[in-house]
Design brief:
alpha/beta; six-stranded parallel beta sheet; three-stranded antiparallel beta sheet
Length: about 400
């Protein structure tokens, strides 16, 4: 942990999110130095505190730990008028409010954007929902898996002749969190010039559609439906995985010059001049002919031999690692992608480091993921000037 200030030092985030998309967003802001106050339901807390195994020996969920560092946890019963009052006081002292309730939930509590803006004219108010605050799906609950289904990701993921497959991590949640943090930082920057608040409406489906990127562009330009290519690429061949003698490798032949170099190095000079394969456009057209030839080629040597050959001629290739191999990879180790953090109940825990490598002001892990309600009294005393007697009464009335 570190006491160094981050780029967002002095910015206070009121975090009403749970599960992954919202917590990932606020964790990124916390990594950059913001003071993130995570509001949780008393006694139970964020749903992911109970998602496991695995758990640490002290009972902390690995899932929860993955998205909640650099936050302070405060329990608050928002079904209580006193809980609402406390939250409003926190908003007065904050810069950003992030929430991922169903649309309309906070409005019914009297916590909508207009009300919060009256309390704090400069507030940045960010909602993260499944489908946004408009459209026929607005009131549906939002789940990463369902967003991947509706948003087309599953239709282009998986074997060409197999079933649609979701991405192996909740990628829509994570991307939505990243997009939301970008929108918040842009809004904070604009506020320094205009003093104005901003209302941000982020949705899983919007983010998922944006993540389709060039696949979406391919369809919009050609009007041809996208399909699954397994680990292949719709626009580049060969750019996929192959089974070798002992393992799988991924290889990316990005242009015709690289293709020529590969053919010569692999002992198939005749492919260089073969009209079916001479350009990438031709290789894409004839992938059903070329890929079986390459399958037969790659199976003849070990993965390490192919990777060494490709590195020698300047072509990107790698063995496909499992997660254990990822964290023993020399480059991952050299870049310090795992950091150890002292947790208040679990002791020293390993965590994936922030990917935001800002050399001059690196992100810091100032606080381990908090235990439930760990900072409730601290926040009430230091920010809102509550006395010990006040806090005792709030506990008795089950407000905190």
């Amino acid at each position: 942990m570190s006491d160094k200030n981050g780029l967002l030092d002095g910015i206070r985030i009121i975090d009403l999110t749970r599960v992954l998309a919202g917590p990932y967003c606020t964790m990124m802001l916390g990594d950059l130095g913001a003071d993130v106050i995570k509001i949780e339901v008393p006694e139970r807390g964020d749903d992911t505190r109970h998602w496991g195994p695995p758990f640490t020996e002290s009972g902390e969920s690995a899932y929860f730990l993955s998205a909640n560092r650099n936050k302070r946890s405060m329990t608050l019963n928002l079904k209580s008028p006193f809980g609402i009052k406390i939250l409003k006081n926190l908003v007065r002292e904050g810069d950003v409010l992030v929430e991922n309730f169903k649309p309309g939930t906070l409005k019914r509590m009297g916590l909508d954007y207009k009300t919060m803006q009256e309390l704090n004219p400069g507030i940045i108010y960010c909602t993260i929902t499944g489908y946004g605050y408009s459209g026929p799906y607005m009131n549906r609950p939002g789940y990463d898996f369902i967003a991947q289904a509706i948003g087309g990701m599953m239709s282009i993921t998986g074997p060409e002749d197999g079933d649609p497959v979701r991405v192996g991590v909740a990628i829509t949640d994570i991307i939505t969190g990243v997009f939301a943090s970008n929108a918040i930082i842009a809004s904070l920057f604009a506020r320094t010039r205009t003093g104005e608040s901003q209302r941000i409406d982020m949705s899983l489906l919007d983010s998922q559609v944006a993540t389709l990127s060039y696949v979406a562009s391919n369809y919009l330009i050609s009007k041809q439906p996208a399909k699954r290519y397994g680990n292949g690429h719709p626009n580049i061949v060969p750019y996929q995985s192959f089974k070798t003698k002992d393992n799988f490798i991924a290889i990316a032949v990005g242009n015709d010059s690289q293709w020529q170099n590969f053919c010569n190095a692999a002992g198939h000079e005749e492919w260089v001049s073969d009209e079916r394969f001479v350009t990438n456009e031709k290789r894409v057209e004839n992938r059903e002919i070329l890929i079986p030839l390459l399958d037969d080629l790659f199976i003849g040597k070990d993965a390490a031999d192919w990777v060494a050959l490709c590195e020698k001629i300047g072509i990107s290739a790698a063995q496909i690692n499992n997660i254990e191999e990822v964290f023993s990879n020399a480059q991952v180790i050299a870049r310090d992608r795992v950091v150890e953090v002292e947790h208040p109940t679990a002791g020293i825990i390993p965590m994936v480091a922030s990917p935001l490598n800002i050399i001059t002001s690196p992100p810091q892990i100032r606080q381990a993921p908090p235990t439930l309600g760990q900072h409730t009294e601290e926040i009430l005393k230091d920010m809102l000037n509550y006395s010990d007697d006040d806090i005792k009464q709030l506990k008795e009335e089950r407000v905190i």
